């Protein structure tokens, strides 16, 4: 599947039937439905429920908003993250009656806490994308593919130069945010996942990180089997996700391929093999070239004091990520945020002031796009030193927005067991054969690459202040049981 994706000839837009589509999921800004047979999804915009009678934007504005998402993904993020990982999709115009019927059909499947917003039934605009949870790279007769969605979050600590609170250079944003979310009742339990462990490139730390993602997935980890979500967390719920059920689903994939059909395989071994396959997929590049990059200066910014991984247990030093791996590309793009929100805010105010004085400059400075080659060039050619200009300030804000998109993106790892018949290597699929667990054909994609609004910077600063003060107030105390976790953390690792 290439980055560009054509609908024509596959879906007849004038013969759309809502019964061919089912509810797939939703985020804050859009709702997703998937086709029951074709490997396709539609992403539709959402509005606050109070605007349901009176849409807040015209059909042309809705079309432009979705086209902006496509342009940002294909012209900006694709260059930074690597075209092979990106599926930008295309804007489609749907019959309004189909959209209305679809809205009625999916309403009862939506989570109650998401129903403060309604689906856009006025514009008929949607983003059509490949359905990465049921990839087209398998024959239906074979074992259904597994797809794992991971939201890795921010993988580095900010430089001390721009932050007002020293704690930000020691404890990562994700680990601090956990305290804030639990304090506000968004989640009942803290996750012990730390993004710095995942982005370390060290297999032990990565294994440890994924194990904790599985134990407390929150919004950051989901498993799909044949397109159906079989493992995730429900926000605000007291129930832990059903690990026993997940292992039951996973067991056949690992028993069969390890010739252990008649032998007993412990749950721990199943989990180990599953995590090891994921680590391999995340570390392998698309082309088998590219060395390991270790930035010594950033080394001290790659350990988070809140992570319960015991540093002394690392048998091999922190190796860094292979330069052609998906995590390396994401981390490099995240690090376009060189100033942290605190260092950036004065520059944002400079731009804001300039736009109050000269409102027509919004277009020249590409505040709301268009997200084209010129936009990419602006942020790539930003001077190293602040010359006091509005051009410098706007380039830094654009860099920050792109970095925020990379900090909030999702990864989709599709795993298809290589059965008796050997599957050929298509573009973007590689055979993972260099480890004891079974061989899978796999593809790695990056999702959720929408541009962050220019005016979200003020909100980001307020949220940052709340998160840091909450962490300092609660003392960032480790909860009971974490010491035991430290002791257990190496039991899961096979010798490398």
Overall strand count: 14
- Name the quaternary structure: single chain
Radius of gyration over alpha carbons? 23 Å
List the uncertain runs: 1-9, 286-290, 420-428, 430-436, 478-496
The SSE string, one letter per element, is EEEHEHEEEHHHEEHHEHEHHHHHEEEHH
Count of alpha/pi helices: 15
Distance between the termini: 33 Å
Structural class: alpha+beta
Range of helix content: 25-40%
**Coarse morphology:** globular
Average residue pLDDT: 84
The largest β sheet comes out as: 6 strands, antiparallel
Strand residue percentage? 5-15%
Summarize the SSE layout with pairings.
Blueprint: E1 21-26, E2 30-35, E3 40-48, H1 59-81, E4 90-93, H2 96-107, E5 117-119, E6 125-130, E7 146-150, H3 173-183, H4 195-198, H5 203-215, E8 221-225, E9 228-231, H6 243-257, H7 267-283, E10 292-293, H8 296-299, E11 321-322, H9 326-334, H10 340-357, H11 361-364, H12 373-380, H13 390-407, E12 410-417, E13 430-431, E14 440-447, H14 457-474, H15 482-488
Antiparallel strand pairs: 1-2, 2-3, 3-5, 3-6, 4-6, 7-8, 7-12, 8-9, 10-11, 12-14, 13-14
Helix pairs in contact: 3-14, 5-7, 6-7, 9-13, 10-13, 10-14, 12-13
Quick overview:
With 496 residues, the chain is α+β, with helices and mostly antiparallel strands. It has helices spanning 59-81, 96-107, 173-183, 195-198, 203-215, 243-257, 267-283, 296-299, 326-334, 340-357, 361-364, 373-380, 390-407, 457-474, 482-488, and strands at 21-26, 30-35, 40-48, 90-93, 117-119, 125-130, 146-150, 221-225, 228-231, 292-293, 321-322, 410-417, 430-431, 440-447.
